[in-house]
């Protein structure tokens, strides 16, 4: 996505993946080499925070940094996942004033709930472990429920799946590779965190799971006439926000989207 964006705008930048085992060393290297920007993935989104000079207030509240920008030798950390979620939703309409149900209170759920609350939505956090839902709901001024609140999806304007449910195939595949074990059929069964009959026409349903692009939730929501946003859209918009932070230019969304589709098709 980033390379496609640079190409589209004729910017002389590149973006390369590094497999990092020494995070402190990587940050020292970034400073020494004058690298402009860094995208941070799991498992380093929290661990990187004390190594930076400044943390954007929203990233500090979420407690995770996925983007670092170097300016005049100072490293500032941002979280673009929350902006990505809000922009993806706002393509379909304003988030302000919407009743939003966020399923999940892990790293992704935290970014989505903070982003939506900041954008003016009334947020309900539902999670399998209620204590995590309660803690996150308190942070964002919302309320907490157990995971079975998904049964009442039709009461909301917007439902976001920020759990890992639906990533079954991929999770099972990598677990199988790690253990050298054959995949069991049950592990591959598509799962949806929201029962199909709980959704209704007009409900906005966003899945943060982007692989497979057509998750069981996306398919069920479409069958019910809901307005569906697949996980690739949030991924695109969070990368677009990174692109803006790295380059100071407006992100060429179409070029970046085409590159993303090629990768996750
Ligand atoms: P991520 O960074 O992708 O959010 P995470 O921090 O491990 O990953 O969070 C995973 C989320 O998916 C959590 O909200 C988790 O619920 P718990 O906090 O109760 O563990 C949720 N989750 C994972 N598997 C689930 C399942 N089978 N049913 C319901 N929720 C599930």
Automatic annotation (TrEMBL):
Catalytic activity, as annotated: shikimate + NADP(+) = 3-dehydroshikimate + NADPH + H(+)
EC number(s) from the headed UniProt entry: 1.1.1.25
Domain Quinate/shikimate 5-dehydrogenase/glutamyl-tRNA reductase span(s) in chain numbering: 89-164
Matches recorded under InterPro entries: Aminoacid_DH-like_N_sf, NAD(P)-bd_dom_sf, SDH_C, Shikimate_DH-bd_N, Shikimate_DH_fam, Shikm_DH/Glu-tRNA_Rdtase
GO BP terms in the entry: aromatic amino acid family biosynthetic process; chorismate biosynthetic process; shikimate metabolic process
Signal peptide range in chain numbering: none
Keywords (A to Z) from UniProt: Amino-acid biosynthesis, Aromatic amino acid biosynthesis, NADP, Oxidoreductase
Residue ranges constituting the SDH C-terminal domain according to the UniProt record: 233-261
Superkingdom: Bacteria
Pathway it works in: Metabolic intermediate biosynthesis; chorismate biosynthesis; chorismate from D-erythrose 4-phosphate and phosphoenolpyruvate: step 4/7
PANTHER family: BIFUNCTIONAL 3-DEHYDROQUINATE DEHYDRATASE_SHIKIMATE DEHYDROGENASE, CHLOROPLASTIC, SHIKIMATE DEHYDROGENASE
UniProt-recorded name of the protein: shikimate dehydrogenase (NADP(+))
């Amino acid at each position: 996505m980033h390379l496609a964006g640079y190409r589209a705008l004729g910017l002389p930048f590149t973006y390369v993946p590094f497999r990092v085992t020494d995070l402190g060393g990587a940050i020292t290297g970034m400073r020494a080499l004058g690298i402009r920007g860094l995208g941070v993935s799991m498992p380093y989104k929290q661990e990187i925070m004390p190594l930076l000079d400044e943390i954007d207030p929203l990233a500090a509240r979420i407690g995770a940094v996925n983007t670092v920008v170097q300016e005049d030798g100072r490293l500032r950390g941002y979280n673009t996942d929350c902006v990505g979620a809000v922009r993806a939703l706002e393509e379909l309409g304003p988030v302000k004033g919407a009743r939003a149900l966020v399923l999940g209170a892990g790293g992704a759920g935290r970014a989505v709930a903070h982003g939506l609350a900041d954008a003016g939505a009334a947020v309900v956090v539902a999670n399998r472990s209620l204590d995590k839902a309660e803690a996150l709901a308190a942070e964002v001024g919302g309320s907490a429920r157990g995971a079975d609140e998904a049964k009442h999806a039709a009461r909301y304007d917007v439902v976001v799946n920020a759990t890992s449910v639906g990533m079954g195939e991929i999770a099972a595949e990598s677990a199988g590779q790690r253990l050298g074990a054959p995949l069991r059929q049950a592990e591959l069964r598509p799962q949806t965190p929201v029962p199909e009959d709980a959704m209704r026409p007009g409900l906005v349903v966003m899945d943060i799971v982007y692989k497979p692009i057509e998750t069981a939730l996306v398919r069920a929501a479409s069958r019910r006439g809901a307005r569906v946003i697949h996980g690739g859209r949030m991924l695109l918009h969070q990368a677009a926000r990174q692109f803006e932070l790295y380059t100071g230019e407006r992100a060429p969304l179409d070029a970046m989207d085409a590159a993303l589709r090629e990768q996750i098709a």
